[in-house]
Amino acid sequence: MTKEEFQNLAKREIEEAKKEVSQVVDESSLNAFKGKYLGKKSHLTSYYALMKEVAPAEKKEFGMELNALRSALSELLSAKQKELADKALAEKLEKEKVDITRPGYHATLGSKHPFYAVIDDVTDFFLGLGYTVADGPEVETDENNFELMNIPKDHPARDMQDSFSLGDNLVLRSHTSAVQARVMKAAKGVGPIKVICPGKVYRRDNDATHSPEFGQIEGLVISEDATFSNLLETLTLLLRHLFGEKREVRFRPSFFPFTEPSVEADISCFECNGKGCALCKHTGWIEILGSGMVHPNVLRLNGFDDKKYRGYAFGIGIDRVAMLKYGIDDIKRLYTDDVAFVEQFRKE
Ligand code: DAH
Description:
Shape: rod-shaped
Bound molecules: 3,4-dihydroxyphenylalanine
Strand content: 15-25%
Distance between the termini: 89 Å
Radius of gyration: 45 Å
C-alpha cells in the first residue's frame, strides 16, 4: 500500500467515525464506538498488523500516519466522552436545583403551657431564695396526706378536701402538703428545711373554677429561727413577683389543721386596682393562697422537736394563678389538648 493510499483510507475512516460519533448518545453507544474504532477488532488494529509488510525505509512514516489516525479517533472519543459528562452534570444540576427565592415554610414553634409556665416562674423565684425542689407521688398514703398533717380520721377537716380513696389506706393526694410529711421524715428531725413541692393533686370537685385534677405548689421552711414575719415577707415578695410590684398584699386569719396561726393571702385586684369588678367579685381583693406557722403537732408527728424548731408553710393553687395571670375563664381549658388554646400563650 502506498502512503497516499493509506492516507485516503485513514481519511475515510475518520469521516466515518465522525459521522458515527455524532450518533452516540449514551454510555453504551459510546462503548460500541470505542470498540469499533479503537478496539482489538478495529480497522486501526488491522492497519498496525500491516506494518510487518511495510518496507523498512517506509516504516517510520507509515507509523506516524498510523499514530495520527489513532489520535484523531481518540480525540473524537474523548470529545464525546466530555460532551456526555457535561450533559449528565447539567441534567443533574438542573434536577437538584434549589430555588432560594421561594418563600420558606412557617415552622410552628411549641409553647409553654400556662400551667407549667406558672410552675417554672414560681420555682425560679424560690430557687433564687435558696429553696430546693422536693417531690412526692400522686398516689399517697392516708398517713402522709392526712394523719401526719394533723388531720386524724373523722376530723371534720377531711370534708374540706373530698379526696379520692383508692382503698388500702391509699388516696390520690388531695394537696401537696403530703410532701411536707415526706420531707420532714427524711430529714430525721434535723433542720433546716427549705423546699417547694410543685405537683398535681386530686379532689372530688367539678365546676368552672374547680377541676378534679389540679396543681399546687407547697412551700415548707423549718429552722430554729423561722418567724411569722419571714413568712409574710416571703409571700409578699412572691405575689408581687407574680402579679406586679404594685400589688397590695393582705393577710386574713384563716384555719388549716397543719398550721397555727393560719392566714390566707389576698392581692389587690389587678383588673380594677381595688375599686371592685367582676373578677374580684366587687371586693377589690383576690384570694390567692393559704399559709401559716407549722403546727407543733405536725413538727412532732414528723420527728421534729417543736421546742427547738419552728416552721412556716404555704400552698398555692397553680391553676388559679394561671387563670388570673393569663385571663383564662374556665379551669378545664388547662386540661384539654386544644392546640389553639396553648398557642395563645406563645411568645413569638
Ligand atoms: N393544703 C392546703 C389546701 O390544699 C393549702 C395550704 C394551706 C398549704 C396552708 C399549706 C398551708 O402549706 O400552710 O387547701
